[in-house]
Design brief:
Layout lengths: L11 E5 L2 E6 L1 H9 L9 E4 L6 E2 L42 H20 L11 H35 L13 H12 L4 H24 L3
Antiparallel strand pairs: 1-2, 1-3, 3-4
Helix pairs in contact: 2-3, 2-5, 4-5
Length: about 220
């Protein structure tokens, strides 16, 4: 008796933009085509019972997804390269988090440096206009360096997430780093400890600086 690929409980994998997606049901793949347009007849797919990856058009899925008629100039899609021969099923939490923790550490370091160069501990009445302009200039430069480091390490981290078989957050979220961290944790199935710690560090630095400046006014 042959394997029944038509049953709704069958789980499938497919390759979209060099990323292995799945497991998904036939119903989910229909949505991915009709809503996200991630599938076409040449998409490489795999499910239990397949000895290897094969084009979607050569599987039972072709009977479940209505593709437009191919043009006369359509060319055959080459077979999957060797690194796609088996679906990538990375266990949750197996993504390399080195660069994420570097981002958290850089945030703490930059925050401490920011406190040191911003007239930390001096009452505002003691800070001259020239000193204030110097502080603002240094703070701006520090912010640019911090952003550049975040972009660098986020780019490296996105490569690690993609290599593990997950879809990384958009690099634009580097402008709102906590959002990047929480999206990453959600997509990789990890507990967002690094995102929570990132927020704790930032709020902690803010409250420490506010407290010190308040106390210094009474000294």
């Amino acid at each position: 008796m042959g394997y029944n690929y038509n049953k709704s409980s069958a789980l499938w994998y497919y390759i979209y933009q060099d990323v292995t997606k799945g497991p998904v049901t036939i119903e989910q793949m229909q949505k991915d085509y009709y809503i996200h347009r991630e599938l076409h007849p040449g998409t490489m797919v795999w499910t239990e019972g397949f000895p290897d990856w094969r084009p979607l058009s050569s599987s039972e899925l072709i009977h479940h997804i209505m593709f437009p008629a191919p043009s006369s100039s359509a060319q055959s899609v080459p077979f999957a390269p060797p690194y796609m021969r088996r679906p990538v099923q990375t266990p949750k939490g197996n993504v390399n988090n080195v660069y994420i923790w570097v981002i958290v550490g850089v945030t703490a370091l930059m925050g401490l440096i920011g406190l040191l160069i911003s007239g930390f501990g001096y009452p505002y009445s003691y800070i001259s206009m020239a000193m204030m302009m110097t502080i603002l200039g240094k703070s701006f430069l520090l912010a640019i360096v911090h952003l550049a480091l975040n972009i660098l390490f986020c780019s490296l981290d996105r490569n690690e997430v993609r290599r593990a078989g997950y879809q990384p957050p958009s690099l634009w979220w580097v402008l709102i780093m906590p959002v990047y961290l929480f999206i990453r944790a959600y997509r990789t199935g990890q507990f967002p400890l690094y995102a929570i710690l990132y927020l704790v560090i930032n709020f902690g630095l803010y409250f420490i600086s506010s407290f010190i400046y308040t106390i210094s006014e009474f000294i």
